[in-house]
Amino acid sequence: MSGDVTVISGPTAVGKGTVVRALREGHPDVWVSVSATTRDPRPGEVDGEHYLFVSGAEFDELVASDGLLEWALVHGTDRYGTPAAPVRAAVAAGRRVILEIEVQGARQVKRRMPDVRTVFIAPPTWDTLKQRLVARGTETAAQMDRRLQTAEGELAVAAEFDHIIVNDDLGAAVEQLVELLGL
Fold first, then answer.
1. Pairing mode, strands 52-53 and 36-37
2. Are 129 and 139 in contact (CB under 8 A)?
3. Per-residue pLDDT tens over the stretch 12-55
4. Which residues pair with 163 in a beta bridge?
5. d(CA 151, CA 157)
6. Beta-strand runs (E) in 12-107
7. By CB distance 3.0 to 4.6 Å, which of 5, 99, 139, 154 could disulfide with 11?
8. 13/138 Cα distance (integer angstroms)
9. Beta strands, E only, 14-155
10. Hey, which residues does 83 pair with through a beta bridge?
């Protein structure tokens, strides 16, 4: 048996991580990939749990050795990628796999794994997205501007995804995802 892979994507501050965490709380059998990143940890983030925080040189080695299923330079500053070996192992074990990744990475995974299910998490409004980013309080004004510029482009390509879930109400968004996954 092979596993079922779903890519969850969407713009910054849309609540991708919150939706995925809530899904996992209700369905602990779902396996969620941990992305590698070159960015510094935010307050409260734990290496190996939230992200694999790696140096630029370590990331370069993962790229050179084909150790990433996908990777991208995000917001023009930091690299993010999905370590391939754990995903392949989870799929081979028949697990239901979730990749919570950026839009650029979602496109790469779709090219490499055409049968993957893609889900775009969208904000109810642009203003809501901006409010969520500000409320997070983890970026400088310049970083927020850069993230919002990226978000505009990502929202423009939402139709490329198999499914779009508007994250207006967390419970409703998670329930839609549960239905899509057949859990």
1. parallel
2. no
3. 889 899 999 999 999 999 999 999 999 999 889 999 998 999 99
4. 119
5. 10
6. 31-32, 36-37, 52-53, 68-74, 78-83, 96-100
7. 154
8. 11
9. 31-32, 36-37, 52-53, 68-74, 78-83, 96-100, 117-122
10. 68
Question: Taking the complete model, does pTM exceed 0.85, yes or no?
Answer: yes
Cα dihedral value 74, 141, 169, 25, nearest 10: 60
Torsion angle of C-alpha atoms 130, 32, 47, 83, degrees rounded to 10: -100
CB 1 within 8 A of CB 84: no
| First-last CA distance in the chain | 17
- The radius of gyration of the chain's CA atoms, rounded to the nearest angstrom, is 16
Q: Report the distance separating Cα 180 and Cα 172, nearest Å.
A: 12
In the block, residue with structure tokens 């794994």: 113
Distance CA 35, CA 161 (A): 20
The string of pLDDT tens digits covering residues 71-88 is 988 877 899 999 999 999
Task: Compute the residue count for the chain.
Answer: 183
| Residue 179, CA distances (Å) to 2, 88, 99 in order | 20, 24, 17
Phi, psi dihedral angles at 97 (to 5 degrees):
-110, 135
Question: What is the C-alpha to C-alpha distance for residues 114 and 4, in angstroms, rounded to an integer?
Answer: 12
Which amino acid makes up residue 75? H
Contacts of 46 (CB under 8 A, 6+ apart): none
Sheet holding 68-74: strands in order across? 52-53, 36-37, 78-83, 68-74
